[in-house]
Amino acid sequence: MAVLYVVGTPIGNLEDMTLRALRILKEVDLIACEDTRVTKKLLVHYQINKPLVSYHQHSQISKINFLIQELMVGKKVALVTDAGMPGISDPGSLLVKAAVQENIKVEVIPGPSAATAALSVSGLPVDRFLFLGFLPHKKGRETMIKEIIASEQSVIFYESVHRILKTLGQLKQFGLKRQLVVCRELTKKFESIYRGTVEEVLEQLLKDRVKGEFVVIVSNK
């Protein structure tokens, strides 16, 4: 029976791969992945040999149609992203939506997520939180920054190495007074967690090499 498996993969440390995810990747007919080079490294590490199809934010609608056609003839397809859970700040949700519209069974194989990993070690009030994914690069960015500062809930978002200092600088500029936590390279060799006011976190970051992917959590009080 055709099934689209949404499979979580490690956000850094390969030991975080679940036994169920490994079994599914061994059983499917095809793996749709964000970057074939990244997924290939994971498969080689676990001695899995399966056909790969690239599926990412720049893929044309024809790629979704191809994958849906493969499912409709009875194939089992695994959807993975470079790190974490597909569909979270990546185009995986479009493929899932297309599968649902065709009444194709969709099954989740849960795994690591940078957002939930950061929330769990933040020590901040996160019983309710607002997840923003990546902030806009240009249009709407300042508006979003002001909304973060005004939010009555804790706010979590992703930021790249190229914009983390700019983002923290803008939070400072627009008057953020609450505590925040910035997580860098979670589960990887150089994992770092910075805590304090925006001024204190900026000072800590400037002392280190600003490198890697970041998750930022702003407390609600």
From TrEMBL:
InterPro entries: 4pyrrol_Mease, 4pyrrol_Methylase_sf, 4pyrrole_Mease_sub1, 4pyrrole_Mease_sub2, rRNA_ssu_MeTfrase_I
Location of this chain's protein in the cell: Cytoplasm
Top-level taxon in the UniProt lineage: Bacteria
Any one GO CC term of the record: cytoplasm
Keywords for the protein's UniProt record, in alphabetical order: Cytoplasm, Methyltransferase, rRNA processing, S-adenosyl-L-methionine, Transferase
Domain Tetrapyrrole methylase stretches: 4-201
Flavoprotein recorded as keyword: no
Reaction equations catalysed: cytidine(1402) in 16S rRNA + S-adenosyl-L-methionine = 2'-O-methylcytidine(1402) in 16S rRNA + S-adenosyl-L-homocysteine + H(+)
SUPFAM superfamilies the record matches: Tetrapyrrole methylase
EC numbers: 2.1.1.198
Keyword Lyase annotated: no
One example GO MF annotation: rRNA (cytosine-2'-O-)-methyltransferase activity
NCBIfam families: 16S rRNA (cytidine(1402)-2'-O)-methyltransferase
Similarity comment text for this entry: Belongs to the methyltransferase superfamily. RsmI family.
Protein task: Catalyzes the 2'-O-methylation of the ribose of cytidine 1402 (C1402) in 16S rRNA.
The protein's name: Ribosomal RNA small subunit methyltransferase I
